[in-house]
Amino acid sequence: MARLRIDAVLVQAVIAGALSFAHLHDLAAAAGQTGWKAWAYPISVDLLLVAAWRRLRTDGPSRLAWCWFLIALVASLGANVATAGLLDLDDVPAWLRILVAAWPALAFMGGTLLAHSPAGHIPASPDPAPVPDPAPEVEPEPAPAVEPEPAPVDSADAAPALPPVHPAPTAPAVAVPAALVDHARKVAADHEHRTGAPIDTDTLRARLGVPPHMADAIVAQLA
């Protein structure tokens, strides 16, 4: 059989609860609440304190829970201090009698708000379900065009044969001096360095001042 372990915190809680319970009873009795009514006051204070603490533990910190927790704590501590000789229990002031008489309604309102008020945080709404993309429309492929078969051509109606084409006579080769070719090569290199593109025949002819056939011969040697 397991031994019963005594928890120091639990013992302190029992002692504090018993003393606070007795002080609240004595204060309620001194304020004119006699009989069972005096015993109901400490139960009401402790229940409100527990309800506010439970709301703080389950739903997180909120102004409502902290407000009623502090109200119940002040009522419990106030009774402990008032019955410690600082207050004449035989001559309780009128304002304290009013507070004690109004406590049941105040505690009922606090317990109702703690039990039925929604939590301060708003739960995140679930992400909407993704909408699938519509299927692309497939256009029908056009039917291949059927070309009509050519009618047979009689050999007698065939088109006459074209005369043979003789190649155009080539231009005679132009002799270009080597010095002119070297100068043209420098002009072409300078043009390509400045523009980034090779020089064309018309530009080379304009730069050198030569006729078109000589410019073609120079370009052929530069290639």
From TrEMBL:
Kindly indicate whether the keyword Transmembrane belongs to this entry: yes
Assigned keywords, A-Z: Membrane, Transmembrane, Transmembrane helix
Membrane in keyword set = yes
Compositional bias ranges of the Pro residues kind: 125-151
Q: Which InterPro entries match?
A: DUF2637
Q: Which domain of life is it from?
A: Bacteria
Mark the transmembrane ranges.
Answer: 65-82, 94-115
Q: Where is this region: Disordered?
A: 120-168
Descriptive protein name = DUF2637 domain-containing protein
Q: Which organism is it from?
A: Streptomyces sp. SID14436
Question: Lineage of the native species?
Answer: Bacteria, Bacillati, Actinomycetota, Actinomycetes, Kitasatosporales
